[in-house]
Amino acid sequence: MPALSEIITVLEQAYPPALAESWDAVGLVCGDPAEPVTRVLFCVDPVAETVDEAADLGAQLIVAHHPLLLRGVHGVPADTAKGSLVHRMIRTGTALYCAHTNADSADPGVSDALAEAIGLRVTGPLAPNEDGVTGIGRLGELPEAEPFAMFVQRVADALPATVPGVLGAGDPDRPIRTVAVSGGAGDSYLKQATAAGVDAFVTADLRHHPAGEHLANAGAVPALVGLTHWASEWPWCGQASLVVAQAFAGNVDVHVSTRRTDPWNVRAERTSI
Q1: The sheet that has 223-227: what strands, in order across it?
Q2: Is 209 helix (H, G, I), strand (E, B) or coil?
Q3: pLDDT digits (tens, 9 = 90+) for 121-135
Q4: Are residues 99 and 240 in contact, defined by beta-carbon separation less than 8 angstroms?
Q5: How many CB atoms lie within 10 A of CB 90?
Q6: Is the pTM of this model over 0.90?
Q7: What CA–CA distance (Å, rounded) separates 162 from 62?
Q8: pLDDT for 59-80, tens place per residue?
């Protein structure tokens, strides 16, 4: 049985902490590095649903994409939302490890997993680091061009269903071949996607004004595909689970959470004029 520290070593080889943004909080949040680990749960969000899922599975480790304690805290009392999670994990013997912007920038990383799910061949990073290999987002291409409306449907079919669904903004008939993707909130990379000259840009949390101003340009390229944050990053869980499964074949049982942790759970459309 590998120790938690051994699993952390493998994760940090795949997703080096040095790639994390300076403001980020990555690494081990709670848990004893010397304790053995036989079962790991991978998820996007360390929230009550996934902490409960880990306890139900008997997992000794949660590997999450989003940090639990991104901003500094002075305590974790059990009567606060995040403090209650820390106390529950300690009581159940569950460690928590977070790989956030280091997993975004790694090669392969979060956006590679999103690109693979959509069926893209990755050609490079959208916003490269100095090495030209790692960085935020990915550029890629489809095997053949297809109409934008069909491409939006391709994205929807490739990712878990969410209440808001997948939204497209652009000419439904425009041929799409080259694509930029950015898992998570990516409208700050819209300028890079535009400069790259791709046909479509797939990301989450597209804001009204940046999207509207982009589309106001005549013949705006790229067309936009908007996802929920959770759906855009969920494919990474499978990628990260494979990293651990291959490193500890037969000794560690890996599970990918399918619990949708998007905050949006009710959808309504107007029924009268």
Answers
A1: 121-128, 135-147, 175-185, 200-204, 223-227, 167-169
A2: helix
A3: 999 999 999 999 999
A4: yes
A5: 15
A6: yes
A7: 23
A8: 999 999 999 998 878 889 999 9
Of the CA atoms within 13 Å of residue 132, those in its CB half-sphere come to 1
Do residues 126 and 136 make contact, with C-beta atoms less than 8 angstroms apart? yes
Which among 203, 209, 210, 208 has a CA at the least distance from the CA of 226?
A: 203
Cα separation of 63 and 74, whole Å? 24
> What CA–CA distance (Å, rounded) separates 259 from 44?
10
Q: Apex CA 150: angle with CA 237 and CA 182, to 5°?
A: 35
Residue 109: CB partners within 8 Å, gap ≥ 6? 15, 103, 134, 236, 239
Alpha carbon distance 199, 212 (integer Å): 17
Residues 59 and 88: beta-carbon distance below 8 Å: no
What does DSSP assign to residue 219? Answer: T
Distance CA 181, CA 158 (A): 14
Q: Name which of 102, 196, 101 is nearest 140 in CA terms.
A: 196
Q: From 117, 120, 101, select the one nearest 200 (Cα to Cα).
A: 120
